[in-house]
Amino acid sequence: MPPLLTSVHHSQLHNLRSQSLDVIPNHAPLPDPFSQDYRCDDVVVCVVCGGICKPTVYSSLAVHDPYLRRDWMHPTLIRAQKGFLEWCKQPHTATAYRRRDDKVLHAIPITQFRGGPDGFYAEGLGKLVINTADAEMNLPIHARCIDLALIFCRYQSRFSINFRAFSTPEGGIPSSIAHLYEIWMKRALMTNPGLLGPLHQPIDEPNNYFGAVVTQKLYEYRWTLSHDNYNIALQEADPGPSSLYTTHVVMLRSHPLPRDVRPDPKYETLWETIEKQPPEIRNRIMESLEPFDDLGIEETRCTRIAPPSWWKARLFSHDLHPWLYDLDEACLRTVCVSTGNSLPLSPQMDWERLCRDMAQPNVCKPGGALFGHAGLSNRHRIWRLLNSARLGHFSSPGSSTCFT
Predict the structure, then answer these.
(1) Which of 345, 353, 358 is nearest to 257 (CA)?
(2) Residue 22 carries which DSSP code?
(3) Is the distance from CB of 72 to CB of 238 less than 8 angstroms?
(4) Which residues contact 307 (CB under 8 A, 6 or more apart)?
(5) Whether 403 contacts 214, CB under 8 Å
(6) Of 50, 44, 215, 14, which is closest to residue 138 (Cα–Cα)?
(7) Residue 118 carries which DSSP code?
(8) How far is the C-alpha of 195 from the C-alpha of 100, rounded, in Å?
(9) Strand, coil or helix: what is 45?
(10) pTM for the full model?
(11) Collapsed DSSP state (helix, strand, coil) of residue 62
(12) CB of 265 closer than 8 Å to CB of 357
């Protein structure tokens, strides 16, 4: 079974959007929307993560924070091609097993953003609007979140999931970017049900974007920021890839393999039995471990059934923890040289313990193995949002995201 990404490099991930999504090129000049008298304060949030779309004009945020730490939060618009709703009705679109549906969508780079649903400007296209009356709706999204959504769907497409089989446990679970777009579009429609037109409030999300601060106005957001709100610091942290950093952080949580480690007596011959099975049965058993996350207390205990080399291979192939897609074994020696830290370079490390630590529900929360690393914590939050997305999961108006 091929890994998600065997070795992720910055350039590869940067090019993932243009390779996978049908990007509309921007060449023609557009009118300058800047004005000293204009002040942007209407919030638009990314439909994936709930973080603000960073304005490119004067705003309350620009006065408060002149630094460019929010560059990754510059908006993009994602929109389906004409006929998308008819395309969705075709039976074959319910599953995306080992298939990508990226070409039914456009990613539109935004040159200037003035805030609000009608504040988007793109070269060659002019003014663009988030309008719930459009059959193929423009939806706001960060480029980083497109990257994560594409990686998430690439992982999900390894499994045969029926998006529209609501009578089964996997019903409504997305496995392609088109499935996610359909969910996001319906969330936008349900944010202000019955009223079609420009959407003047942040798009709702059933899980409150897992703690993201969502406001109607940027001056309200700035006020929350000025009070050192932890959630804002987290949701503004860049979730993008850095193989060297991610590998360093994760490996610092590793430990040497304890001496005389043996599996529980009742499991002692289980691995030999698994290894003797036909490939299709053996692969089915291994796939049942994927993804390896949200382990219960009992599941965090090492069983020592599989050898350390097996756990190491699964860790660096991203089969068990696909959200750690930039974890790279090739970086181990580089990390050692650059930091002077002695990191493991052999299978004689407790790889099973490390894999189970990375799979705990609170891995990025206080007491968790990755707590304090904001970028990885935000990526984990965004991955959870993608993983919890379901067709038909919409809260009633005003009951989901907490607007201030």
Answers:
(1) 353
(2) E
(3) yes
(4) 271, 347
(5) yes
(6) 44
(7) T
(8) 33
(9) strand
(10) 0.86
(11) helix
(12) no
Burial 236-266 (b: 16+ CB within 10 A, else e): bbbbbbbbeebbbbbbeebeebeeeeebeee
Report which of 278, 328, 285 is spatially closest to residue 3, judged by C-alpha positions: 328
Single-letter residue type at 155:
Y
Contacts of 132 (CB under 8 A, 6+ apart): 188, 189, 192, 195, 196, 197, 198, 199
- Going from the C-alpha of 361 to that of each of 22, 253, 386, the distances in angstroms are 35, 16, 16
In this structure, the number of other CB atoms found within 10 A of the CB of residue 289 comes to 13
pLDDT in tens, the chain (404 residues): 333 332 333 343 444 455 556 666 555 555 555 555 456 789 999 999 999 999 888 788 765 454 446 889 999 999 999 999 999 999 999 998 888 888 899 999 999 998 999 999 998 888 999 999 999 999 999 999 999 999 999 999 988 889 988 766 667 899 999 999 999 999 999 998 888 999 999 999 999 999 999 999 998 998 888 776 778 889 999 999 999 999 999 998 888 888 877 777 777 777 778 877 887 787 777 777 667 787 877 888 888 888 888 899 999 999 899 999 999 998 887 665 554 555 545 558 899 999 999 999 899 999 899 999 999 999 999 999 999 999 887 764 444 443 33
